[in-house]
Amino acid sequence: MKRLLLCLWLLLAGAAQAGTVCSDKPLQLRELRQALQLAERSWQALEDSGAELALIARVGQDLSAYGLRYSHMGIVWRDHPDGRWTVVHALNACGTARSDLYNEGLGNFFLDDMFAWETLILIPAPADQARLAAYLAQARARQLHEARYNMLAFPFARDYQNSNQWVLETYASAVSPAPLDTRAAAQGWLRAAGFRPITVEIPALSRLGARLTRANISFDDQPFGQRMAGHIDTVSVESLVRFVRQRDAQARQIVLRLPAG
Question: What does pTM read for this prediction?
Fold first, then answer.
């Protein structure tokens, strides 16, 4: 336990400040302790699972108004060159409409002003794990990354991309029977395979306010009729998990949470 916490602390100390919230609030010791505790439990669950790779989600925001629990997902890879159980994910730079791909330890993954200390780990079938690991090892996932970030990006357009959408498109490209080397090809496969996004209801005034005050929210990639009706389709963690479990009968799900308080 002490050795693991030391390793996690070193990962935290050397990590880039990617994904940190737009806040000047100093880090609290309690937050660090809980991030490390959830990281340790996640590490142990992944070790015990025998998995090579999994999808991992966190509760970074309160999305209950939209019927959602988890806000952000990444890919956690056991044999990553940067260290065992490194998370690969797309992160929006604070206050901007840009994102990039980052490799982070589990401790840093959970150190993001969490709304709740809870994680969902989705373990695909072994064959799909191997395909995803090989895909990441070849560095092909970067070619599917779109730096123009939009929190509510439309799932079947290429104007923008949100973090969960990058995971979904990477998953599609890795597990599809034929190679998919473009976002258009990945989205075409996802549509044909039955992926269904979540629809968020956002009134016109709320859309206007978000567009004027948030650099990382846009609506112009949504189909015009849906946009005017306030029906905004996007990729959520829940829609991604639902799709994987529908097509993969062997997928396993683990939910870990720390006690409140």
Answer: 0.88
Angle at 167 between CA 163 and CA 172, to 5 degrees: 145
Instruction: Locate the domains of the chain by residue range.
Output: 2-13+22-257
pLDDT in single tens digits along all 261 residues of the chain: 444 443 444 344 333 333 344 555 677 888 889 999 999 999 999 999 999 999 999 999 899 988 899 999 999 999 999 999 999 999 998 878 899 999 999 999 998 879 999 999 999 999 999 999 999 999 777 889 999 999 999 999 999 999 999 999 999 999 999 889 899 999 999 999 999 999 988 765 454 444 434 678 888 999 888 888 888 999 999 999 999 999 999 999 999 999 875
> What does residue 252 show for φ and ψ, rounded to 5 degrees?
-115, 145
**Helical (H) or strand (E) element with 246:** helix 237-247
CA 212 vs CA 21, 91, 147, 206, 244: distances in Å: 19, 21, 20, 10, 35
**Among 75, 83, 90, 207, residue whose Cα is nearest residue 152:** 207
Determine contact, residues 40/8, Cβ cutoff 8 Å. yes
**Tokens standing for residue 217:** 């929210």
